[in-house]
Amino acid sequence: MLMVDVIRKKRDGGKLSKEEIDFFINGYVAGTIPDYQVSALMMAIYFKGMDDEETGLLTQAMLHSGEVLDLSMIPGFKVDKHSTGGVGDKTSLVLTPMVASLGIPIAKMSGRGLGHTGGTIDKLESFKGFTTSITNEEFIENVKNVGISIMGQTKDLAPADKLLYALRDVTATVDNMSLIASSIMSKKLAAGADGIVLDVKSGSGAFMKNDDDARELAKKMVAIGKHAGVKTMAVISDMDQPLGRAVGNTIEVREAIDTLKGKGPEDLLKLCLTLGSYMVCFAGRAASTSEAEDMLKEAISSGRALEKMADFIEAQGGRREDVYNTTASLPRGKKRFVFNAEKDCYVSSIMSEEVGNASLILGGGRRSKEDVIDLSVGIYLTKKVGEKCRAGEPVAKLYGNDEAKLSEALERLKGAYAFSDEPVPKNTLIRGIVE
Ligand code: URA
To answer: Could you tell me the distance, in angstroms and rounded to a whole number, from the CA of residue 308 to the centre of ligand 1?
Structure first.
């Protein structure tokens, strides 16, 4: 088979066969097909698309390009969760201990932040001593003994995706539905869970800028999961403003812990209860999502979810007391700048991406993979969409360690907000469910 024929077929709108898809994925990983030919194919796919069968075959080829984790030695139904990425998204930090506290094993691989979006691993490293650099064996032992473990994605997991993603990033071919769906699902399926709950973000701060696109992506991913024999569903959730009120690293962990203590923001709790209820139902622990939600609420009110978080942090090198006293253990930046309302008004919109960029300017995010980040900096959104501001009241607070960066971030943050003299409805958080 010749790669040039595969490229030509897709360029002309043809449908690729399993043999052709396996050929280019295996050849790319082996180094026998060069970047420039795969770039050309990615661009052809970008313009001509792939149908569901091709997308499924591409996912399978990427999934089997490396190691597939075997979690069968962990008793129970293992359920994973994935978010397509957003600003202020600390859902995993709340959801995983909450669900694990009900005796449902959580074996999760997470990533670091890049650009305007954060990553679970960076956030968790806010706890002194905590590490996700553990072996597969330690990961599995922790899930067995503690009920929950989170590790960084190993380099052996879906290596084809790693290569392809890096190539797509520099050839303007990231935002294609089939390429995104296969990229995410190949990694999720390789991580070995029995069930996957997806949080597909929709809005200005997300890959998918509107609900129709988010639903299409969700449907593709759910179909891929089910076809692979893994229970899969998706929640479509709002990213037309950041989730919760905290954006950064330590500041987000504090908000997540507050939520586990029953004192978190309403939207974050609601999203965690919705995603969590499907995880509980998938695991066969509740007959309905409303029954599952009640179980999750009880896990919070009884303190069991928080205790599970402490068990988890301790098992991976942190100190359990740091979970209970985040004011001391997770310090915020030493300097604070405040964005005050100029007059009485209502918040009409907040561009999530720009809030993420303001956090990046403070030093809380990476422009490139090698950047070292300042975990203590961040932003607190005192006012969100639909909320009333009185003249002189804080709209948002910025925490940092460098006045020049704080000034620049403050200007950027001001540009992210829009106000109205008239009342504005609050955003709808849950935009849809795809089962
Ligand atoms: N996240 C991924 O893992 N892959 C994509 O293609 C887009 C977002």
So the answer is: 30
